[in-house]
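Input for the complex:
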Amino acid sequence: MTIGIPRAFLYYKYHILWETFFDELGINYVVSPETNKDIIERGLRHSIDESCLSSKIFMGHVDYLIDKCDYIFVPRMQYLGNDKETVCTKFQAIYDVINNIYREQNLNILYYSIDIHNKDTELKAFLKMGKFLGKNKAQVLRAYYIAKQAEKTDKMLAINNQKLLLERNDKLKILLMAHPYNIYDEFIGKPIVNYLEELDCIPIYGCVVDEKKALDKAKEFTKTMPWTFNKELVGALNLYHNDVDGIILISSFPCGPDSLVNDMIIRKYQGKPIINLTLDAEEGTAGLETRIESFVDIIKLRKKNHVHE
Amino acid sequence: MNNIKVNFPRWASYNVAVEHLIRDGLDCEYVYGPPITKRTLELGSKYAPDYVCTPFKYNLGSYIEAIENGANTLIQIGGACRLNYYGEVHEQILKDLGYNVKFVNMANAKLAKPLTFYDEFKKINPNLNLAKITQATLVAVKMVDYLDKIEDYIRENVGFEVVEGSFDNLHKEFLEDLRHVKDKKELNVIYKLYLRKFKNLEINKPKNPLKVGIIGEYYTIMDDYSNHFIEKELAKKGIIVKRWMNLSNSIFHNEKEEEVKKKIRKYAKFNMGATAMFTIQKAIEYAKDGCDGLIHLKSFGCTPEIDTMPVLQRISEDYKIPIIYFSFDTQTSDVGINTRIEAFYDMMMMRKEKVK
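Predicted:
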């Protein structure tokens, strides 16, 4: 049996957890390749036109995997904490969306569901999934805890590496405020990261952050924002902004949460230079280069003037 | 009298109930924004984030117009989608525009702790009286219920009115009379009176008229300006309109989540967010109930409703019932809508002929 893991959406936040879990249980899996033209086209073909670019990309990865595995892995989540600690409704609906779009193909979907309001914790969700995979409770528990440890270690390493970058003063440091599935995606975020590096800047990732600390910091920014992932980013802005030279907000068109949150950041945040970039399938990153280049030029100029003062 | 002048954005017919709550429950003046017009949307679009959903823009425009009418205290509510964050952003935008108003955001309150709503009401008028606000809330809730019942009747019958405009005129009178209601007793009298009046309006209903079920996004489906008066367009063609989604049904008369899930199990395993479950449930119900077509309404980019579309497509295939999707943004034109309704009407007619 082989599990197909779409390299999109939650993959970027949870892939260490998932891959270690499956490895420990001895389950085969295949991850779809980096987003490419074929995947984008598949995604566009199978999505409702108005869906956000990131979800179209997810759809493309699912479509790519269909004849290459026995089960497609589509976890869903709703409430990640008490009260209104939630995620974009896309992540609540994704399992059923895939199921309906591919009804004729009779897809086998492997999933787990997290919903704290229904007491479905991550642990419980993984136990259920493990049972579905035919493993006993002890095996699943062991795999889950090893996977959690691996996840924790990976995060810690990434945060520590970034800390070193934040201490550097030889180059401009640009904070990238974007969901992991956007900033690490070959089509959406990578071109921006590469271009910044070409311009001799150090990219700093808002999504590489101690999540608990970030969520706590976010309280200074908002009382009613319901989306955990956005709150983590807003908290990261608070934690990192002193150590960077500029901030780029990146979202995929027409992301529901980002449509409001990024506007709010532009309105409320005062300090470092900041721009807001929105990507859609037609334009991609073309045209963005000029904006990024002039943004970096302005920062350089300001810095120079500042030194002269 | 204090100088607190309260407004809640224009939304369907519900502002009369908000007015009652503010006036009789909080002892404050209620200020209406003017009815929504093109200007409302233009104002909202000008200052709102580009690709936020349209209700946000309507609300923002409506706030600005209410401020122009003298409002100094604005209310927003919370919800299960972007709506929950509306208030914070509205407040910030209005502040950035230089308006000096008090903003009371019910999204701060927690449904699980009803007293937190009391705390929010207190922000509107610190001298409020718990007994009074409770009383007025009960009347306002009942008023919404009656409004919805009357409008259900209108949707079933207005397409067959003998005197053009008779339903619309009576509806306006009804709303005006609701504004002066003082207590539950008066409310009951008004409701019964108008129910009778509506039932006495002459109609000429054919034996087997076309019937459509409307489903979709919370704000747009209920607010007639936002959906370009689509129900009126359908009525003009002599179509019965079924629409379960309204304020009272969605809050007070809905089934438990587990029950809904059972009914839609064939199509959806999980809660797909916001009111998507109801959209699916009602689509199935209308299809089974012999509706001739389904109409799905939403504002552009409404994620939970976009995600119901693949499901609705399946329901349409399984029950062989035609469906048409409308997505409203600031650029939507009446002409485009009417042409599509025309074509949909023809399709439903042909299907009906065939079934005969």
